[in-house]
Design a protein that fits this description.
13-stranded mixed beta sheet, Rossmann fold, about 35% helix, 2 domains, globular
Length: about 350
């Protein structure tokens, strides 16, 4: 993680910097005005909004950075696939390299980064799902709407996308960081005001550190769930599983480019695996040859046995070495039956399909 990002995170989540406040407050005001105008345009001129008949589950958060959107998207997609629904995951494709309005996954892609790290992690985990990326997500969804029987869209990181009419929104909140200093970006981490939690059909606290009652009181909602992430296994480039008990005896390092790298490190150490070192890069970072050389030099100098990476990093961190192991993360949601019941009720209201 670079120094600027570290300084900003300290300011946004821990202790405000007077200098950064002077610099960022005017920028935050401009960000707020821009957001207000963009949202207001579509709320006033509703005929400009795109409306589709298929169910659309929107996943997002009120803050910049990660709070479990990717694993939650996988969780919901796998659940819906178990009910024989055709899931169509749509993403902005942050950091992707496609051209035109949007791109659709058809079984192959030219190079790592074409669809972006999040979508490419979905491809490896959900080979039967339909996957698309595009800046004009409303037009993309409208194009494919009603094209497949029992289709459900999962709209990843689109809480602030106003062109598409959304009627079922899941908002995630990081259990440790919450809303930081409660200021708008870049003065703070907020994309929208905290009061916008009222739009949520479901609120999920990711990696909670307090009781259910604490978060219900803090967030002002009772329709709230906890999500926990756990590493279930590690696999090498060929897909062969490596026992966790074996890794406990080895010298390991972690390499990741996610918003909160400490969550990945904590998940590894919770398994009893001791990390010798960790290489943390900014979220969505594209690994360069220099990055890999630096890591490889450390591996050779310190006689490291394994490099542990996330599923999100796998498409970008291409390596022919069996030293590189990808973690398989599974999400657990408390009161999962009530959680899926709410989703079932929404889908039934849109499709008239009764789920049992």
């Amino acid at each position: 993680m670079n120094n600027l990002e570290t300084i900003w995170k300290q300011h946004a989540y821990h202790e405000k910097s007077f200098l950064l406040s002077l610099i960022c407050w005017p920028l935050s005001l401009l960000y707020r005005i821009g957001s207000y105008l963009k949202r207001g345009f579509f709320e006033r001129w509703t005929f400009k909004q795109i409306i589709v008949d298929d169910p659309v589950i929107t996943i997002g958060n009120l803050t910049v950075g990660g709070s479990g959107k990717t694993p939650l998207t996988m969780y919901i997609a796998e659940y819906l696939q178990s009910l024989e629904f055709n899931c169509h995951i749509v993403s902005r494709g942050y950091g992707s390299d496609y051209h035109g309005q949007f791109a659709h996954y058809d079984g192959q892609w030219d190079k790592p980064g074409f669809f972006g790290d999040e979508v490419e992690s979905y491809i490896s985990r959900l080979p039967d799902a339909r996957l698309s990326v595009g800046k004009q997500r409303g037009l993309l969804i409208h194009k494919y709407s009603k094209s497949v029987y029992r289709q459900v869209y999962i709209l990843d990181d689109a809480l602030q996308y106003w062109r598409l009419k959304k009627d079922f929104q899941i908002i995630l909140v990081h259990g440790k960081y919450l809303f930081g200093n409660k200021e708008r970006f870049p003065h703070g981490p907020l994309r929208e005001d905290i009061e916008e939690l009222k739009r949520a059909s479901i609120v999920i606290v990711y990696s909670p550190e307090h009781s259910q009652e604490y978060y219900e009181d803090y967030l002002g909602t009772t329709n709230l769930f906890f999500a926990f992430q756990k590493i279930m296994s590690f696999e090498d480039k060929s897909g062969e599983l490596i026992r966790i008990s074996e890794l406990k005896k080895m010298k390991c390092i972690s390499v990741c480019s996610i918003a909160h790298p400490e969550s990945f490190k904590n998940s590894i150490e919770a398994l009893g695996i001791e990390l010798v070192h960790s290489f943390d890069f900014p979220d969505h970072h594209l690994y360069t040859a220099e990055d890999k050389n630096q890591i490889q030099e450390y591996v050779e100098k310190n006689e490291i046995d394994y490099l542990l990476i996330t599923e999100k990093d796998r498409p970008k961190f291409k390596s022919e070495s069996n030293q590189v192991l990808t973690s398989r993360l599974d999400l657990k949601i408390n009161d999962s039956k009530r959680f899926t019941d709410i989703i079932d009720q929404y889908i039934a209201s849109k499709t008239k399909i009764v789920l049992e």
